[in-house]
Design goal:
One of its GO terms (molecular function) is hexosyltransferase activity. This is WecB/TagA/CpsF family glycosyltransferase. Keywords: Glycosyltransferase, Membrane, Transferase, Transmembrane, Transmembrane helix. InterPro entries: WecG_TagA_CpsF. The protein is α/β, with parallel strands linked by helices. It has one domain. Helices cover 53% and strands 12% of the residues. The protein contains twelve helices and six strands. Helix 11 packs antiparallel against helix 12. The longest helix is centred in the C-terminal third of the chain and has 23 residues. The radius of gyration is 18 Å and the shape is globular. The termini are close together. The mean pLDDT is 93.
Length: 249
């Protein structure tokens, strides 16, 4: 996990886009972090290879501050995936960097393009792909990478859900010479399909509750199982009964 800010993350990603350098980026919340801990050889291993992993959730930021070592800076704000995406689209529009969307449905991608280009008139959308909700054949996967590469996109936003999106970014990081950002539900939010939690709930770390109340059937396992596990693991680490697996803490 990187102790970073919106400004630092945005600058690094924009510079990587300008220099045509691969840069997989993950925005990590409680679900993703707990998944990484429990699946250390799969999701956990992949995320550790990412050059930039930003603290998406407030509980993750709080934990990083509680576990910080002497001399490490205290994080005043998290780096939320949907907000980071907006900031990058703004900079991309200003600097002529094209973007590409990968994931979600065709209707979401259509609305996403409309809303973002309305907000940022100079934004260049190089393309968008809605992959089928199944395992792709090697030929299909290669075709998608070909389309993204030939589009000349400077930044690729990926919304496939955790841990699928991180796996996709990890497996294709050497095939795309640009930043690849795993942004979770950001597509649905910016397309207008998924309302964002009130700012107060976000500040209090209760965004998960807002989303759970709206989608209990789909999200019950994530929040009812992973949240308690996260709290238990954090308490054990604070009591020094469990070693840290993430040296950036």
């Amino acid at each position: 996990m990187n102790r970073t800010t919106y400004q630092e993350s945005t600058e690094l990603i924009i510079q990587s886009a300008k220099n045509r350098k691969s840069l997989p980026v993950a925005a990590v919340n409680v679900h993703s972090l707990t998944e990484a801990y429990l699946d250390a050889n799969g999701h956990g291993y992949r995320v550790k290879q990412f050059p930039l992993v930003v603290p998406d959730g407030q509980p993750v930021r709080w934990a990083m501050n509680l576990l910080r070592k002497p001399g490490q800076k205290s994080l005043q704000d998290r780096v939320r995936g949907p907000e980071l995406m907006l900031r990058l689209c703004k900079r991309a529009a200003e600097e002529g960097i094209s973007i590409f969307f990968y994931g979600s449905t065709k209707s979401v991608l259509r609305n996403l393009r409309i809303n973002l280009t309305k907000q940022f008139p100079n934004l260049i959308v190089a393309g968008a792909i809605s992959p089928p909700f199944r395992t792709l054949s090697p030929e299909e996967d290669a075709e998608h990478i070909r389309q993204i590469s030939q589009s000349g996109a400077g930044i690729v936003f990926v919304s496939l859900g955790c841990p699928k999106q991180e796996k996709w970014a990890f497996e294709h990081r050497d095939k795309l010479d640009c930043p690849i950002l795993c942004v979770g539900a950001a597509f649905d939010m910016h397309a207008g399909n998924l309302p964002e939690a009130p700012i107060l709930m976000q500040d209090l770390g209760l965004e998960w509750l807002y989303r759970f109340v709206r989608e209990p059937v789909r999200l019950w396992k994530r929040y009812m199982l992973f949240n308690p596990i996260y709290v238990i693991l954090l308490c054990l680490q604070l009591m020094k009964l469990l070693p840290l697996r993430n040296p950036e803490y």
